[in-house]
Specification:
The complex is a heterodimer of chains A (about 850) and B (about 120). By secondary structure, chain A is α+β, with helices and mostly antiparallel strands. Chain A contains 23 helices and 22 strands. In chain A, a hairpin with a 2-residue loop joins strand 18 and strand 19. Chain B has a single domain (about 1-110), classed as Arc Repressor Mutant, subunit A. The chains are: A alpha+beta (about 850), B alpha+beta (about 120).
Chain lengths: ~850, ~120
């Protein structure tokens, strides 16, 4: 009968215990009646099927009973139910939201086939660990490398699209022939590039690109999803280009705002300078090759290639990184901090829920004892309590997911825009599964302790002792849970405090210019139409004259790139008697400016003059430099009139201006050199063409925009305007994601702090109500109110002290892991640690106050008589 | 009592079979199974799980009661639990029989069943 005994295990223990023996006997007789071996086998099959069906039915009946019973009990204790559901919802919501972002940034594979084999290739040079590749190095290295199945490069471009209504400014990428095959993607419509030469050399890049591939979004938005788009000719940068393909929806590379791809073409000129770095390398490793092996090979390849060069200017090496790691590198610390904070909240939530359930279990000892006395088995009771926890978990979990749905769009902005995907993180099945598992785990973990204890409390002891009994172990457990809450909230508060201090430091950093009342916009003049400098000067002179005449406008100018928008663009500095040497860090940021730039941004002119209209190609080549540039090369001397070699010419310094934070508020910037835009040679340094217009005005900035549009339109009807925004917005964006991080962490910290306070209050209140009689006796025996107050306060104080010290210790560890996010503040910042300690002590005082006063007001006569 | 009985109608077939099997005498589980099989000409053979699941529910509903376990002579003298139909069980069984008779009358009237209406 062994097999049937095993089948019986499918039934709930209570049913099995009641009827197992009878059923076994019955089955034994049936088998005896069956007769021959074949008939016995058929009978066995019938028995197995019958057992499965009935066992499920019995379980279902019990579940129905338990759920009904749970609904009744929970409905009776509405306050408890609501609190428990809210607590679970907070924990699940915070963690679900954090998980969906973590999943998106760190875990989810990139949307390419075999994404683990995709790597980036960088040039290592002059202290820069990740520098773009120069065409020449890429060419040499690609020929020698054997780690890659495919290796391609891309670089960012922009283009004006006309002929489809309003002229559009689009972001795109120029890609080499092997790039799409390396990514392993195909066009949804038509084809991509590839199959031909990876990086063809043309006499001039004016030969025109060989076709364009559109993003799904652009195809839908501008061309209305025209199914016959492949083969159509569109006008990009005044040149006709044939559309050869459309990428699938959801494809995006290298980041989500890129909307078209054209073939990358190099001119013989591009091959002259190994320092001409502008290509981003993307490779697909051969099966069997690892990132480490590829990195080692490329370092060797670069070293060998350099040995073959006649006189290398400086040491150049190469490195390979995983594409996934590369993308999430910047946000890893932030996402981990977010997850850590969410876990802290979850820990506190579990502790609070456990506390709540423990208190409730104590209150229900009589109910449970009565049910036990009436014959309910231990297994049925535990099952009933588990059902209760699970129902609470599911209700709380559902609410938590709703909370997460509301919060995720806010967290989305924490995700850096450089991910090659056009989808946003959302609540999908994986996230829902995670939330469900989390809710159940939280409720079961929290419900476990009271369940185990209630299981023990069978028999008459629970009946006899009544609700007054407090298990000493339970009290200790509740205390331990509060200590855990204090620890977690200390860690969260300190992490938040450190980030707030960092934010303040950054916000108080002087950018070197005055951003308010400055409007910026981009007029990216297309080539070859504007290849001649005089034509550009003519365009801008016309625009500036008209704009300056607008009411409220005090000045207008243009620059190659706005500060904090384009952070690079550096050039080696050559001093008389010394060759230009990037190795020693002799670089400066290079910008071409129109006259009036410094006045418009309110950059102080320290000495000399601004660039002027007279600084043309036929005049002396001049430069305005920043203070740090002057101080670096001519310390303690007047820099005006000095010479240096820069951007293919010898320049004379005519002015010195204040430094600005080109690389943003958090980074140190190279010294700055400004060259007059009229002295930019034709068809040269096109990357640095002035395109960003800045306008200072006393009128509201958005009112200016229509007039400026009209002015640009009269200057060139085909010229689009893009990126219209106040300079203030650019500076604010510097701290926006930090501000958001701080707000999210602060939200978590607030929740933790409140829950911990509620926890302390709950434990002490409960202790006071349980000890009413004892306190009554103490007062009757002559204990002073002050003694009672001290007694309760000491209990609360002990809980906080036990949590505070390990909390501070853990926080110092957390602070160190956050170091990458901190600026201007040490991980163990005395101010933050002191403030948090004070705050936690205040919280403890607040949590202790009410229960303590209640204890003091106990009337000894009534307290003793009550029992 | 009648209202309580009506609330349980219609009875699941297995429940009615068990009540009928217990109408004449107290029986243990195996005997109930054999009796049902005999009365239906072997068409219905209750499995152990089906039987005891019904027994459990019928005990809760008060249709049957357990009488003290005693040796079952035909089962090697093992002690077995015996079940007895309760007065409430009889009321419910009668009510169900009345309900079925009424149904049969309706069916005959519309020519769906043989016999006189």
């Amino acid at each position: 009968m062994r097999p049937y005994r095993l089948l019986l295990l499918l039934y709930p223990a209570s049913f099995r215990g009641e009827y197992g023996d009878e059923m076994t006997a019955l089955v034994r007789h049936r088998l005896r009646d069956a007769g021959g071996p074949l008939a016995r086998l058929v009978t066995w099959i019938g028995i197995a099927a019958e057992t499965a069906v009935n066992a499920a039915a019995v379980h279902g009946e019990i579940l129905k009973q338990d759920v009904r019973y749970t609904a009744r009990t929970l409905n009776r204790a509405r306050g408890f139910t609501l609190t428990a559901i809210l607590i679970v919802a907070l924990g699940v919501g915070a963690n679900t939201a954090a998980f969906s972002v973590t999943d998106f940034v760190l875990l989810r594979p990139l949307p390419f086939p075999d994404p683990d084999r995709l790597v980036t290739l960088w040039q290592v040079q002059g202290g820069y660990a990740r520098m773009e590749l120069s065409p020449l190095n890429y060419h040499d290295w690609k020929q020698a490398a054997s780690s890659f199945e495919r290796l391609g490069v891309h670089t960012g471009i922009t283009a004006n699209l006309v002929g489809t209504g309003e002229p559009l400014r689009l972001k795109g990428a120029a890609v080499s022939g092997d790039l799409f095959p390396a990514l392993g993607v195909r066009a949804a419509l038509g084809r991509t590039f590839g199959g031909g030469e990876d990086l063809p050399v043309r006499a001039s890049d004016a030969d025109g690109p060989g076709g364009v591939v559109l993003s799904h979004g652009l195809w839908q938005r501008v061309f209305g999803g025209d199914a016959a788009i492949v083969g159509r000719t569109i006008t990009l940068n005044d040149r006709p280009v044939t559309v050869i393909g459309v990428m699938p929806a959801g494809f995006s590379f290298p980041f989500s705002s890129v909307e078209f791809w054209v073939p990358l073409v190099v001119t013989p000129g591009d091959y002259q300078d190994r320092g001409n770095n502008y290509l981003y390398g993307i490779g697909r490793l051969k099966p069997g090759a690892t990132i480490q092996s590829a990195r080692a090979e490329m370092a060797l390849v670069a070293a060998r290639s350099q040995r073959d060069q006649p006189s290398p200017a400086e040491t150049v090496s190469a490195t390979v990184n995983g594409l996934r790691d590369e993308l999430s590198r910047q946000s890893r610390v932030m996402v981990l901090a977010l997850s850590g904070a969410a876990l802290c909240v979850l820990l506190i939530v579990c502790a609070n829920l456990a506390n709540l359930l423990l208190a409730r279990a104590l209150g229900r000892r009589q109910e449970i004892a009565v049910r036990t006395a009436m014959g309910a088995g231990r297994e049925r009771l535990i099952r009933q309590l588990a059902t209760e926890s699970i129902v609470l978990a599911l209700l709380g979990g559902t609410l938590g997911v709703l909370l997460a749905v509301m919060v995720v769009p806010m967290l989305w902005r924490l995700v850096p825009a450089n991910l090659p995907t056009s989808t946003a993180p959302g609540i999908d099945l994986r996230v829902l599964a995670f939330a469900g598992a989390l809710s159940l785990a939280a409720a079961l973990a929290a419900g476990l302790a009271p369940m185990i204890r209630s299981g023990d409390d069978t028999g008459a002891r629970g009946l006899r002792e009544g609700a007054r009994a407090i298990g000493g172990r339970k009290e200790a457990l509740r205390g331990a849970l509060v200590v855990a809450e204090v620890i977690a909230s200390v860690v969260l508060l300190i992490a938040t405090g450190l980030l707030v201090r960092t934010l303040w430091t950054i916000q108080s950093t002087d950018p070197g210019f005055r951003a308010d009342a400055v409007l910026t916009l981009r007029t990216d003049l297309p080539l070859p139409k504007y290849a001649v400098t005089a034509r550009r000067t003519e365009f801008y002179t016309h625009v500036f004259e008209q704009v300056r005449a607008l009411p409220g406008v005090s000045s207008a100018s243009a620059i190659s790139f706005l500060p904090m928008v384009m952070r690079g663009g550096v050039w080696p500095v050559g001093l008389p008697g010394e060759p230009a040497d990037r190795r020693a860090g002799h670089t400066a940021s290079l910008r071409f400016v129109a006259p009036g730039f410094f006045k418009t941004l309110d950059v102080p002119l320290r000495s000399g003059r601004d660039v002027a209209d007279g600084d043309t190609a036929t005049a002396q080549m001049v430069a305005v430099v920043s203070e740090s540039f002057a101080a670096r090369y001519w310390p303690g001397q007047d820099a005006i009139g000095r010479h240096f070699g820069f951007a293919f010419a010898d320049r004379t310094i005519v002015g010195v201006v204040g430094d600005i934070r080109v690389r943003g508020l958090e980074s140190t910037s190279e010294p700055q050199v400004y060259l007059p835009y009229a002295q930019q040679p034709d068809n040269s340094l096109v990357f640095y063409l002035p395109k960003d217009i800045v306008i200072r005005a006393s009128t509201p900035l958005d009112q200016l925009v229509p007039a400026i549009r009209a002015i640009v339109h009269t200057a060139d009807p085909q010229q689009p305007i893009s990126d219209v925004r106040p300079m203030k917005e650019i500076v604010d964006a510097e701290t926006a994601s930090r501000g958001l991080q701080v707000r999210v962490l602060a939200g978590f910290a607030m929740v933790a702090f409140l829950l911990a306070a509620i926890g302390i209050h709950g434990v002490l209140s409960f202790a006071v109500s349980q000890r009413t009689a004892e306190i009554g006796v103490r007062i009757a025996l002559g204990a002073q109110r002050r003694d009672i107050l001290t007694m309760i306060a000491r209990q609360g104080g002990a809980l906080v002290a036990m949590g505070l010290l390990p909390g501070l210790l853990l926080a110092s560890l957390a602070g160190r892991s956050l170091q990458a996010l901190l600026v201007g503040v040490t991980p163990i910042d005395p101010l933050t640690f002191g403030a948090v300690t004070t705050l936690v002590i205040l919280m403890a005082a607040a949590g202790t106050l009410l229960p303590a006063f209640r204890a003091v007001r106990i009337d000894p006569i009534r307290a003793i008589r009550a029992d | 009592m009648t209202n309580d009985a009506d609330a349980l109608l219609p009875l699941p077939p297995v429940t009615l079979h068990i009540l009928v099997a217990l109408a004449e005498e107290d029986r243990h589980g195996y005997a109930i199974m054999q009796e049902v099989a005999a009365r239906t000409g072997g068409a219905i053979r209750l499995g152990a799980g089906t039987l005891y699941r019904s027994v459990q529910r019928m005990l809760e509903q008060g249709l049957i009661a357990e009488v003290s376990a005693r040796p079952a002579p035909e089962l090697d003298d093992e002690r077995r639990r015996y079940y007895r139909i309760t007065p409430f069980g009889r009321t419910v069984a009668k009510a169900e029989a009345r309900r079925l008779a009424q149904m049969l009358k309706l069916a005959r009237a519309s020519g769906l069943a043989p016999g006189k209406a």
